[in-house]
């Protein structure tokens, strides 16, 4: 009897689970009375909660805003890169380290990801560079980086009333260039008259606040201007002849040494300490490292822009960073020499080059003009060492352990190299007027720049409730699609191609749904070709160029069966017959829509967006039509589709979005003013147990 009762209980429990988990969306909303009792009673309070929210009139559940960016610059050779910016620091913590003097120390670390928010790149044409972008609502600024030749400048610009304007005014750059040219000429002339070969100069700093140069040919020292604060870091910007260093304590100030005038300036407090620093000539940024992290810093204002993690770093204490001539990043720590390679997950993988039992702790390193790697070891009388970056072999050059008989007699906590040399010419291989270093497509004269939505490394998400015009359960997981749009432009900032990257991340519907986009200002004839769409259900009719037939405006159906596309990364390429302005293309994700259950006329759009020429406003339905006016919002203003400028993690089946995300209600009822980043994974924002895994 006991076994029989247990079996009956298990059977009833299994039946309950199957009913609750297997209920699929149906356009007729018909379910059996038993299912209604089991499911609807459980969900009634939560559904009522979200449908009773007091949504302000005019709020369309947008998580982004349209921003018109205007850059004015009369230089024909200036290249601009623009990022979304909000100066957010996270994972702030104090960490214990061993500094370059071998002493236990505590430093502050934090993370930032501004360089992941790359929006577009371009150059002024006739003195103006204009773009209309979509920026997450919680971003209030853009970060602008300007490159002309091998010199970089930057500016942080406020977004005001949907606009961000910047005018470049060269107040000191021309004077500095003239000063640098004169200084280099004098050095070159004096060496020529002395019949001396051009040699490198090693610059060194230490925790005692000493700055000095070292002649690599004989080990002789030259005292330079004392530092504002002792430091374990040094890096040189050759283009502007500045040496940068970070103070060892008290706010960790970023300090700049003027190599021409032998003087120091403190730029700003970095707020973060650590032992490793290098300057990257390719992007004009400082690369700074503590423990198992690498950060980029804008040298003009000490802003921390990005953070990467390092894997496989056996010893995270002490050391330095250095870029080789080919741009490879090397790191030394008290565990030896490593090469750092950035993987597809945006993480640096460390590969050990040297042995793990070196008889010295390499506190610093630098590459000379012959691409030889110089190291310095900690100690009151530091050794200078040369190491091979392939084999890890090494030898003492100067110091107490060398056979040179030359000792420095002081500590070297960091090294960097300066060489007087001619500027290397940057070629323009495809002849489009954009040099190769600034050209994303250096071998294609029709392509030069890229504009990203939401950003170069980020993903946006389109999430749908597919029972329109009936009320759904608002879990927004019936069909969810991650996307990234890349508009490829020529040297005149005109769009020649649109690349669409997408992946279906949720199919909670049980209906066969399709996803399309409409380019509202583009006629079908302006599309040359569409390649990469996945159409298998034989109800979408496309023309020879890949656009949907029967449409007055260009409509592209990306796929017609969401179930078969689940977790499959896909790319669609759209080529235009003639180059178009970014204004003509419109703003991604354009007029995106879902086609429900192979019924071509049943389209679901974002709130207040127009259906395509083949869409039908279904007014006559069996049951309650929640959208009689066809604006894709209920009478309480809830949408059937939402566009989120983030990789959105959808709720579990039949869990309303406001139960999975704690601040959704605050955001919706405030008209988007409160918690505009409600969908992120910040502490306390999500109920992880209610999200799809």
Describe the sheet with the most strands.
Answer: 8 strands, mixed
Q: How many angstroms does the end-to-end distance come to?
A: 40 Å
Total strands: the figure is: 40
Oligomer: single chain
Estimate the strand proportion. Answer: 35-45%
- Indicate the radius of gyration in whole angstroms: 30 Å
Order the strands across the largest sheet as they lie in space: 17-18-19-20-24-23-22-21
- Mass-distribution shape: elongated
Give the proportion of residues in helices: 10-25%
- Helix-strand category: mainly beta
Total helices: the number is 6
Poorly predicted regions: 1-24, 29-45
Instruction: Indicate the mean pLDDT.
Output: 89
Domain DUF4842: 493-679
Protein name: LruC domain-containing protein
Signal peptide: 1-23
Biased composition (Acidic residues): 422-442
Structure description:
Keywords: Signal. InterPro entries: DUF4842, LruC_dom, WD40/YVTN_repeat-like_dom_sf. This protein is mostly beta strands and 693 residues long. 11% of the residues lie in helices and 35% in strands. The chain is built from six helices and 40 strands. The radius of gyration is 30 Å and the shape is elongated.
Give a brief outline of the structure.
The chain has 693 residues and is mostly beta strands. Helices cover 11% and strands 35% of the residues.
